[in-house]
Write a structure and sequence with these properties.
The protein is of the alpha/beta class and about 300 residues long. The protein has helices spanning about 1-20, 60-65, 75-80, 95-100, 115-125, 200-205, 205-220, 250-260, 265, 285-295, and strands at about 20-25, 40-45, 50-55, 85, 110-115, 145-150, 155-160, 165-170, 180-185, 190-195, 225-230, 270-275, 300, 310. Helix 2 crosses helix 3 (about 75-80). It is globular and about 50 Å long.
C-alpha cells in the first residue's frame, strides 16, 4: 500500500511539472521607459512555442533575455520563430508599441484580442495614415502578415502553433473603455493575466467580480498557478485620478473579493505578480513598501523584472 501511495505521489509531481509554465518578462513597467513596457512571453515548461501577453517592449526585451541566457539565437530569429502570436489586452501604446515597430521584420502570426481592441489596431495603428497595414483586415492594401483573431468573452480557443489555449474576459479601464484578462491554459494548469484595470467600485462596474467568479474554482482546485495584475499608483493617488488603474490598497480589496469566493486559505502563499508599476519619483519604492505593509491574505507578492525568468 505504501509503495502504491509513493507511485501516486510521484505521478502527481510529474504531472504538475508537465503542466507548469515559464514566463519571460520582456517589459514590466507602465510608462516612461520605452525599453521596458508591458510584455510577457509565456509557454509551457519544455516548450519553445511562446505567445506574448501584450507587446509594449519586444525586441529590446528579447535581447535582454538572450543576454540572460533565457533564450538562444538572435532577437530577430526568436521574434520570427518562437513567438507564435500576440495577445493584446487593449489599445494603449505601452501595451502594443513593440509589436507595431517590429512588424516589418516579423513572421506571419495571429493577433488575439477582443473585438474592440482589434478595431483600434485596424483604425489607429495598422493604417497607412500611421503605419503600414501589416494585418489582414482594415485599410487597403492589407499586407496580410498578421491575422486578427477575435476572441469571444468566456469562450476558450486554441493558441495556434502552441500547446496552449486562451479564454478572454473584458475588464473596465476608465469606464466605458475596455481592457482584457487572458486565462491561459495548458492541460489542466492555468495562468491569469490582467491588462490594465481599475477597481469595480471606482469603475462603477462588475468586471473584476465576474472574473473572480471564473477564477475562484480554479484557485480552489489548485489549477490556477499565478495571477498577473497591475498596480500602477501608490495609495496616495486619489480615486478620481486613477484613470482605470489599481493601487496597493485597491489590489488587496479586489483580492479580498476573490477570497470571498475561493476562501482565504486558497490565497495564502499564492503567487500574485504585480505588473505595470508606473515610474516617477519614489513611486516604485513606495508601492513595494505599501504592498509589503498590508497583505492580509498573505499572498506571495512577486515584482517581475525584465529578462528574469518566472516559473509556475
Amino acid at each position: 500500500m505504501k509503495s502504491v501511495l509513493i507511485v501516486l505521489i510521484l505521478c502527481c509531481q510529474i504531472a504538475a511539472a508537465q503542466t507548469s509554465f515559464k514566463v519571460i518578462p520582456l517589459g514590466v513597467k507602465g510608462g516612461t521607459d520605452e525599453s521596458n513596457l508591458s510584455s510577457y512571453m509565456i509557454a509551457p515548461q519544455g516548450s519553445d512555442a511562446y505567445v506574448c501577453l501584450d507587446a509594449g517592449t519586444v525586441h529590446y526585451g528579447i535581447e535582454k533575455a538572450v543576454q540572460a541566457r533565457l533564450l538562444q539565437g538572435t532577437a530577430g530569429e526568436i521574434l520570427k520563430k518562437n513567438i507564435k502570436g500576440f495577445l493584446i489586452s487593449h489599445g494603449h501604446l505601452d501595451h502594443l508599441a513593440g509589436m507595431i515597430i517590429n512588424s516589418p521584420d516579423d513572421s506571419t502570426k495571429n493577433i488575439y484580442g477582443l473585438d474592440d481592441c482589434l478595431n483600434i489596431l485596424k483604425d489607429k495603428y495598422f493604417s497607412w495614415k500611421s503605419w503600414a497595414n501589416f494585418a489582414n483586415e482594415g485599410e487597403k492594401p492589407a499586407l496580410g502578415k498578421y491575422h486578427y483573431t477575435v476572441l469571444t468573452p468566456g469562450r476558450e480557443v486554441p493558441l495556434e502553433h502552441t500547446d496552449m489555449q486562451v479564454t478572454a474576459f473584458p475588464l473596465s479601464h476608465a469606464n466605458p473603455y475596455q481592457s482584457t484578462a487572458f486565462l491561459i491554459r495548458h492541460q489542466d494548469a492555468y495562468v491569469l493575466y490582467l491588462g490594465d484595470t481599475g477597481p469595480d467600485s471606482v469603475e462603477h462596474a462588475d468586471k473584476m467580480h465576474l472574473l473572480w467568479e471564473q477564477a475562484a474554482p480554479l484557485l480552489q482546485a489548485k489549477q490556477l498557478k499565478a495571477i498577473f495584475i497591475e498596480v500602477s499608483f501608490a495609495n496616495e493617488q486619489p480615486d478620481k485620478q486613477l484613470f482605470g488603474h489599481l493601487t496597493p490598497r485597491w489590489l488587496m480589496s479586489e483580492l479580498q473579493d476573490l477570497a470571498s469566493l475561493a476562501g482565504a486559505a486558497a490565497l495564502k502563499g499564492f503567487p500574485i505578480v504585480v505588473t505595470h508599476i508606473k515610474p516617477g519619483g519614489n513611486r516604485e519604492q513606495l508601492i513595494r513598501t505599501q504592498l509589503k505593509a498590508y497583505n492580509p491574505l498573505q499572498v506571495r507578492l512577486i515584482i517581475p523584472e525584465q529578462a528574469k525568468l518566472l516559473t509556475f
